[in-house]
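Need residues for this backbone.
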């Protein structure tokens, strides 16, 4: 592997984990003052694993297979749910 492909894979993995994690952390902590940037990134990394956990339990409890399409669908679905909850909580404040 060359350096470009290693960097591309590393950046994509970070984006795949952090995007749903940031959406969920914004849903849980909607105001910017509640967390500083380091705390938000740390929580986002942990919460970013949520789509994979949900997909694992969906595979074990139903007939949903784990493949690239269901993985991408779960990441998009959890990101949209996180943004929707954040938007609702922000409007209600």
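Answer:
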């Amino acid at each position: 592997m060359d350096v470009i492909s290693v960097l591309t894979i590393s950046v994509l993995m970070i984006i795949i984990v952090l995007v749903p994690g940031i959406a969920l952390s914004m849903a849980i902590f909607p105001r910017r003052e509640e967390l500083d940037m380091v705390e938000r990134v740390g929580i986002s990394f942990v919460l970013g694993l949520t789509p994979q956990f949900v997909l694992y339990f969906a595979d074990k409890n139903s007939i949903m297979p784990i493949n690239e399409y269901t993985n991408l669908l779960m990441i998009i679905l959890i990101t949209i749910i996180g943004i929707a909850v954040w938007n609702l909580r922000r409007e209600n404040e």
